[in-house]
Queue: 4 jobs
Job 1
Amino acid sequence: MMALLVPGCRQGGPLKVSEAPPVNLAAEIQRAKTEHKLVVLEFSGSDWCQPCMDFHKRVAANPEFIAYSQSNFVWLELDFPEKFKLRPETEATNRLLLAQFKVEPFPTFIVLDHDGREIWRQPDLTDPNPSLTLNPAVLITQLEAVRRKQF
């Protein structure tokens, strides 16, 4: 990720600006359909949400999980950082999708089918005590069960 310094101070220095482009969800759903994959939306606070950071350290960085997710999913991270800024259009898109999918808490993972319909979510909206597995093998098993229902 490229970063640019922008004027202004925030707890010790200028904010960095991410150059990440906004997600084009319709195009990503079409790409997933063409590649015979499903879409995963990952809503994250990459630099302030401890469970999000733990997920990236313990699961997303795991070689087995990386290989599995790249082979089976179009994985889209929708970030809501505090220590750097997103491009305005990226932030607007992320906020729109956050509202559209009624995301709470962070991190939330949503799997979409080829029509863009939600078919799985972790944590579930009805779960009074939301939790996230940080075991790559367990998450692969959960995602594979969802994938097998679609293909």
Note: The beta strands are 3-5, 16-18, 38-44, 73-79, 84-85, 108-112, 118-122.
Job 2
Amino acid sequence: MDEIGARWFAYVRHAEYAKIAGGGRRNDGRPLTELGVTQARAAGDFLADVIRRHGLRVAEVVTTATQRTQQTADVILTRVDASPPARREASIGRGGDVADRMALWTADLRAGELLLIVGHGPSLSAVLDLVGLRTSALGSLHGAVAVGRRDGEGWSRMAFFPEK
């Protein structure tokens, strides 16, 4: 496949979110902070540039069920000037699960389409591993973005934000 015929994806780690008083790990009801909104805007601006440079459009958005991933996706979509793409909630998984799901989710993309996935740090680390960045610290950064594509040769990395 040529560049435009490749299956493109952008994986974004959710932006910074409000902590629960007293700790805890509940996943619902944790909105983005002001800094988180700023991070999501920056991620969206970066993606808008990638989309323009490669002639892409956002075809679908996958988020987890958490408020922070959904809000991050909402902010990003306002920055990329996208018509409302299809959306779904899904468990993104870890490790090998991520590679299988990425292959499944990108299989039906057409030329010029990009799949936007907004998830959590462990899944971003698995995506970075998939495209050959096994030691990257990006997986721990709120609002980090990995853009890649899959073609006949396999997965490849195209762009990252912030650049490391």
Note: Helices lie at 34-54, 67-79, 96-106, 121-130.
Job 3
Amino acid sequence: MTNKITKDSILTALSKVQEPDLNKDLVTLNMIHNLEIQDETVSFTIMLTTPACPFRAKLERESKEAVMAVEGVKNVIVKMDSDVPNDGRMRGLVKMPIRNAIAAAAPIRHQRKPSSYMNSTRLVVLRSGPPLVITYGSAKSWK
């Protein structure tokens, strides 16, 4: 008698794989997409929250191991993808076309008193085209 592989059995196996940063399993976090079963082959996509996820290889390895432990599975194909959260355009916060952005913020040192900080912060957004510099507080511009 052949054991039929079900989506429920695969999701149960994947629910044992924990996302280390969020301390929850991949199924609860809705990170498993496009789950397909064809004969003895199982394929699915793990949707990461960032393309630079430091746990990418670990999640892929542990997911393959968990699914291979399901009776009847002979081959596992895991695709790793990312779903970067919206950059504010949907909420009307950003009025320019930005697909992906990297931002860094730091307090500004006062030029005359290097040991003190001004009551402001610079935010630099790296994007396609020139960098966007936003200054909050009393500083006027970044030179």
Note: The chain has two domains: 7-82, 89-137.
Job 4
Amino acid sequence: MAAPIDPETRAAALADTLAGMSVNAASKKHGVSRRALMEWREQSGLGAPVPQTPVREQIWAEVDLYLLEALQTMRAHLRIGRDEAWIKDHDTAGLAALHNAIAEKVARMVEVEEAATMGAEPTPIRQAG
């Protein structure tokens, strides 16, 4: 059985993870196991650590690029949908289904991104009913 960790060490390790230090780095710095530090985070209501800022920024940059491309695709769908000759020659059900699927994903991603910037839980734009 391992010796109990003093509260100061526990608090310092938790504080380091809250300040953005990785769990691995904080566990090495304070001489505690990674598993113990993760358990302390759970017990403290902190949950899983948030990725460090550079990774988080990269993730949001990718989300922004995805949203931009999705919106550009939807704009192209709208242009195609106004072309009467194209509509007469093609089955529009597939285009409509794709457009709706992208629109739902974009709406959800915007909800999540908006909630993340406000530090809140995402709330659905449309309630399932």
Note: The chain has two domains: 7-43, 53-118.
